[in-house]
Specification:
Blueprint lengths: L1 H21 L8 E2 L5 E12 L2 E8 L4 E7 L4 E4 L5 E2 L5 H12 L3
Antiparallel strand pairs: 1-2, 2-3, 3-4, 4-5, 5-6
């Protein structure tokens, strides 16, 4: 029984590793915040979904991509969460402009 579990775990790790190797993000230029944090839009993920654009935002501090949504009219928020107003020259507004310009239907 334990052997079967180990084989299943090994097979699952192979398939997730293969998926991770296949996906390559295409990042926009880095946007740096006043505190030194750096972000970029994964241009491969920017898509229109109804009135919003969803895109993966690369967070250099976390070392990964965080899903975000933008309405392209000054509001942004985490995917599935509440959107907040973004000041026009903020990092969020700059990321929104990039995501909205790159979004595919």
């Amino acid at each position: 029984m334990q052997y079967a579990i180990k084989v299943a775990i090994f097979a699952a790790s192979l398939s997730s590793a293969a998926l991770a190797q296949q996906y390559r993000p295409h990042l926009s230029e880095m946007i740096e915040a006043d505190n030194g944090a750096r972000y970029a839009v994964d241009l491969n993920t920017a898509r229109h979904f109804g009135p919003v654009v969803e895109a993966g935002i690369y967070d250099q501090g976390r070392g990964g991509i965080v899903p975000m949504m933008f309405d392209c009219h000054g509001h942004a928020g985490p995917l599935g969460g509440t959107m907040s107003q973004t000041p026009p020259r903020s990092v969020g507004a700059r990321l929104a402009a990039i995501a909205c310009a790159a979004a595919r239907p």
